[in-house]
Amino acid sequence: MELGSILQFLENKTILLTGVTGFLAKKKILRVQPNVKKLYLLLRAADATSASYRFHSEVIGKDLFRVAKETLGANFDAIISKKIIVVCGDVFYGDLGIKDSSLREEMMNELDIVLNFAATTNFYERYDIAFGTNTIGPKNVICFAKTCLKVKLFVQISTAYVCGESSGLIPEKPYRLGETLNGVSGLDIDYEKKLIDTKLDELRAQGVTETEIKHAMKDMGTERAKRYGWPNTYVFTKAMGEMLIGNIKGNLALVIIRPSMITSTFKDPFPGWIEGARTIDALTVSYGKGKLTFFVVDLESIVDVIPGDMVVNAIIAAMVAHANQPCDEVIYHVGSSLQNPMRYSNFRDYLIQYFTNKPWMDKKGKPIKVNKPTIFNSISNFNRFIKIRYWPLLKVIYGD
User: Fold this and answer.
1) Of 40, 161, 228, 234, which one is the catalytic site residue?
2) What pLDDT digit, counting tens, does each position of 202-230 carry?
């Protein structure tokens, strides 16, 4: 898709983005098309003042906005104050928790496009929290979008791993209510909500600690996910979120973007930018610090990673392609395994090469030396290693 057509499409558009503190899209849109009409950014905060503080510290204050500042020059501050409206709210609630009724009405009259990035990405999050954000959250956002007079498109950012642990070609098809990965019947989202509420009431009635409630809810999420064929709470709740919005979208055009593991940027706005350490990034950081000395992995397996700027490009291109296509429900998988696969053997070699040439510095400013990691190709081999290496020490500590 030509850049010119994208820029033309974005001009004079009013867009709502949720989950804005953790992603790139807002910066890209503003940088390439400063003539966008407005960007409403929904931030979770106690009040409007706190939301504004979060915006300036967690968005404007990041290095990623440096390029936008350089591109827009002296106009940067004026454009930010004119184009960006920070909205205090939360996808967990109806009407997105927006208490300012005049602002809410303004949004309903002006919005053209709604993009829902809001999510908790912890694989083993508490079930109540993951369910509220990843399942009920998308429902609340699309319900709000349907009250808006001019909205042409709803974009949901999901994950490729809602497809579970499958092999081969994975079709880009939607999930319908009650559909499961393993064919087990009985998945009912309303019932899942009741289960959560009942469990929380029981735990509180027993007077257990907040830590015990946290562990119980984490275990519940994993158990419910595996019951229906999903490997963890994150992808299970994201799949249920897809089910809900597909069921209630009505005539609203819907695009679901399912990226694989998102890594640092390839080149836009500059190479190597990343915020936080999630999924494979956490492994990279741990290895560089000398804390991770072994992996349990099949070196010939493909690790599907995709640079963050490529995901953003796919989102914006999909917006342009489907904004004027009513009743559409389109899904895009955004990954690398088919056209440019990276195997875990490549990942290992890149880690060794990079941190050997550019070692991580410890707190004293000394380089941390890394060695070639030990690779275990099965859990049984890993368990055998742990038993041989650590069992004698554990027996000394804890007794026979």
Assistant:
1) 234
2) 999 999 999 999 999 999 999 999 999 99
- Looking at the DSSP bridge assignments, the partners of residue 40 are 16, 85
Q: Residue 360: which residues within 8 A CB-CB, separation 6 or more?
A: 288, 289, 290, 367, 368
Q: Could you tell me which of 174, 86, 189, 100 has the C-alpha nearest to residue 139?
A: 189
Does the pLDDT value for residue 400 go beyond 70?
no
Contact 235, 222 (CB under 8 A): no
Taken in order 341, 347, 350, 354, the sign of the CA dihedral is: positive
Q: Does the active-site annotation cover 234?
A: yes
Active-site residue 26, yes or no? no
The structure's pTM equals: 0.90
pLDDT digits (tens, 9 = 90+) for 45-102: 888 888 888 887 777 766 666 766 777 677 777 777 888 899 999 999 999 999 999 9
Comparing CA positions, the residue from 257, 245, 256, 252 lying closest to residue 325 is 252
Which position among 13, 26, 238, 249 bears the catalytic label? 238
| Secondary structure in 3-state letters for the chain | CCHHHHHHHHCCCEEEEECHHHCCHHHHHHHHCCCCCEEEEEECCCCHHHHHHHHHHHHHCCCHHHHHHHHHHHHHHHHHHHHEEEEECCCCCHHHHCCCHHHHHHHHHHCCEEEECCCCCCCCCCHHHHHHHHHHHHHHHHHHHHCCCCCCEEEEECCHHHHCCCCCCCCCCCCCCCCCCCCCCCCCHHHHHHHHHHHHHHHHHCCCCHHHHHHHHHHHHHHHHHHCCCCCHHHHHHHHHHHHHHHHCCCCCEEEEEECEEECCCCCCCCCCCCCCCCHHHHHHHHHCCCCCEEECCCCCECCEEEHHHHHHHHHHHHHHHCCCCCCEEEEEECCCCCCCCEHHHHHHHHHHHHHHCCCECCCCCECCCCCCEEECCHHHHHHHHHHHHHHHHHHHHCC
Q: Taken in order 162, 166, 172, 178, is the CA torsion positive or negative?
A: negative
